[in-house]
Design a protein that fits this description.
The chain is of the alpha/beta class. It folds into two domains: about 5-120, DNAb Helicase, Chain A; about 190-240 and about 295-490, Rossmann fold (3-Layer(aba) Sandwich), CATH 3.40.50.300. The protein is built from 19 helices and 13 strands. Strands 3-2-4-7-1-8-9-12-13 form a nine-stranded mixed beta sheet, with helices on both faces. A two-stranded antiparallel sheet has the order 5-6. The protein has a two-stranded antiparallel ribbon with strand order 10-11. Helix 1 runs parallel beside helix 2 (about 40-55), helix 1 crosses helix 5 (about 100-125) and helix 5 (about 100-125) packs antiparallel against helix 6 (about 135-150). The radius of gyration is 30 Å and the shape is elongated.
Length: about 500
């Protein structure tokens, strides 16, 4: 059944009696929802009703019937418009029922849309050449269905006075408190400063040079969050690593066994302790404590990536269920062959991903999927043996597009420590995680934004210190933790260092 005449008449009767209730439904109900009568009578009555309400005119069955007649529309001979409108007015409906009736009617609109979409899919499938590949066939169906369904996730919005909703919103949050908005992460200090990096509908970006460990950090971070919250991960890889490489890297991170021994198969010869570590990791996987789904999207267009993401979510995760979306890494896609520049392609990619997770894949009208991705820095982000004062630690190192910075909610630079930083900061990690954009902050927001006074009385921005091992990242603390540790231990002597400039071949 794809329509319901009774519901249409109920809603019309309710709006005649309670026109002030129209404001509750006007953002998702329009004339397309009135479909049940072949002669368009109900649709015409709704249009007349909406005119009266929009013009702030009185609404009763007599005035409404006269306005409908002014349209000069021919109705079937068996329908007297005066009597029909009067019968609608007689329906026993309370004002509290208007919203629920409208929602039930909308369900039939969705049914119709899916029904007609199925007909379109059948027609389009017949037109696909017999030599088409599997992905093209699936994408044709996905696009048709999702385009129809997403219409109902994003109905037309009206400007609202946010202060009208403030009390209810804040009181509701107070009645249903949570320790963190979004999925809490494994690094306590990072969480304390910046809140959740995996907030639904938000993108977190990690910027680094090749080989620094951005993939390692992101994968380790997502895997730990997945285990903490029992949430699956969908990982897009741009083709730089094979599935087998991902498997062995993740196995090393999960088990704590060296990558070499897992890759070569020598782990069984390393003794019972190593074997036990591997078996315990397998038990976690069997109990669905961690789920990582891998797609090699090298060469995919942006639209094909989006279609793949949606298809996976609806078919595997299920509508309304949470998921982590990881993408390694944002770079030029095959769309660049269509005459677009690199920055245009990257900007479009980020824009479409943001729109998909924020406006299209929803639960009760709200985003449900967070995204974390990485991006290459330009040459300004190269560390090698350069001294700390010569390092650029701001958004200028982001390659290709400032739209990446524009659309993300958090952006961090991940880099190796310079030799002098390692010298100055012994036992305080191998890498720095430097925030360059934070749309959201954690409970210690002052600590995140205020510069840290060091024991030598210098001021430094707060950063997170990490120990990066083979395929895991361990938080050591932030800059304030370092300052306190150095202060407690007394000033650490620096080794003598050549004051001459660093040779050009090293600096470059």
């Amino acid at each position: 059944m794809i329509h319901n005449l009774e519901l249409e008449q109920h809603l019309l009767g309710a709006l005649i009696k309670y026109p002030d209730k129209y404001g509750e439904i006007e953002n998702f109900i329009d004339e397309s929802d009135f479909y049940a009568d072949d002669n368009q009578t109900n649709k015409t009555i709704f249009l007349a009703l909406r005119q009266c309400i929009d013009q702030n005119l009185a609404v009763d069955h007599v005035i409404l019937a006269q306005r409908i007649k002014s349209f000069n529309i021919s109705f079937p001979q068996n329908i007297n418009i005066n009597d029909y409108v009067y019968s609608l007015n007689l329906r026993a409906i309370s004002p509290n029922q208007v919203l629920s009736i409208a929602r039930e009617l909308k369900k039939f609109t969705i049914r119709r849309s899916i029904y007609f979409a199925a007909q379109q899919v059948a027609k389009k499938i017949k037109q696909i050449p017999s030599g088409a590949d599997f992905e093209e066939i699936i994408q044709t169906a996905d696009e048709t269905f999702n385009n129809q369904i997403n219409l109902f996730d994003n109905g037309p919005e009206k400007p609202v006075n946010i202060y009208d909703e403030m009390e209810e919103f804040i009181e509701d949050r107070g009645n249903n408190p949570v320790t963190e908005f979004g999925l809490s992460g494994p690094h306590n200090r990072l969480q304390e400063l910046y809140g959740s990096l995996l907030r639904p509908g938000n993108i977190t970006v990690v910027v680094a040079r090749s080989g620094v460990g951005k993939t390692r950090f992101c994968m380790d971070f997502c895997s730990k969050v997945s285990r903490m919250h029992k949430v699956p991960i969908l990982h897009f890889d741009n083709g730089e690593m094979s599935k087998e490489e991902i498997i062995t890297r993740q196995a090393s991170a999960l088990t704590g066994v060296g990558h070499h021994y897992l890759e070569t198969g020598l782990w069984r010869q390393m003794g019972d302790e190593t074997v036990d570590k591997v078996r315990k990791a397998f038990d976690q996987i069997k109990n669905n404590e961690v789920q990582l789904y891998y797609y090699n999207v090298g060469g995919y267009t942006v639209d094909k990536m989006i279609a793949t993401l949606k298809r996976f979510y609806y078919s595997t995760v299920g509508r309304g269920n949470p998921m982590i979306f990881s993408f390694d890494y944002i770079k030029t896609a095959s769309d660049a062959q269509n005459g677009k520049s690199e920055w245009q392609v990257v900007g479009e990619m980020v824009d479409k991903f943001k729109r998909t997770i924020q406006k299209e894949i929803l639960k009760d009208g709200e985003p449900i999927i967070p995204m974390i991705t990485s991006v290459q820095s330009n040459r300004s982000g190269v560390v090698n043996n350069r001294r700390a004062e010569n390092i650029v630690d701001d958004e200028s190192i982001v390659s290709l597009s400032d739209r990446i910075t524009q659309f993300c909610s958090h952006m961090f630079i991940l880099r190796k420590k310079t030799l002098d930083e390692i010298e100055d900061e012994p036992n305080f990690g191998t890498h720095k995680l430097i925030n360059v954009k934070a749309r959201h902050l954690g409970k210690s927001y002052n600590r995140a934004t205020e510069p840290v006074r060091m024991p030598d009385d210098s001021l430094k921005p707060n950063v997170i210190h990490l120990q990066m091992d083979a395929f895991t990242a361990t938080e050591i603390g932030d800059q304030k933790d370092l300052s306190e540790a150095v202060g407690a231990a007394g000033e650490i002597e620096r080794h003598d260092r050549i004051d001459d400039p660093i040779p050009e071949f090293i600096a470059n």
